Amino acid sequence: MPKVICANRLADGIVVYAGRDGSWSERLSHAKVFAGKAEAEAGLLAAQNDAKRNLVVEPVVVEVAEDASGLRAVTLREAIRARGPTIDFLPRTHGFAQDADPPPASSARQATQAVLRLDDAGEHHLARPSSYKHRARVVAAEAS
Questions:
Q1: DSSP character at residue 87
Q2: Where are the chain's structural domains?
């Protein structure tokens, strides 16, 4: 099965692939494809030299498949690394109509105050600061 070398760029943590010309590319389609295990191991040695020079971190050999649409990662983990996060992680400002009012500032402030807490049983609870005092009183009452 064909293989490529994958790593994270040290400067910004972005997933990169060893390119055909010896550089690092953010695109899987620009990666140098190794036909066999011996070739991939030689490519990994070169990538480890780049790691020693602080260009990338954690270079690894990744199996890929080649089809009509190009290269694609075989494992789910590498497919996610190649395509990026599976959720939107940046706020979207373009989701509102130009004439619409933006969301109220108070709702954004409330959302940032919510905190995920673990109780003694290890269960997750989403709580707002105002409920902390109530919960502390209940826990203290149960303890006495």
A1: S
A2: 3-83, 107-143
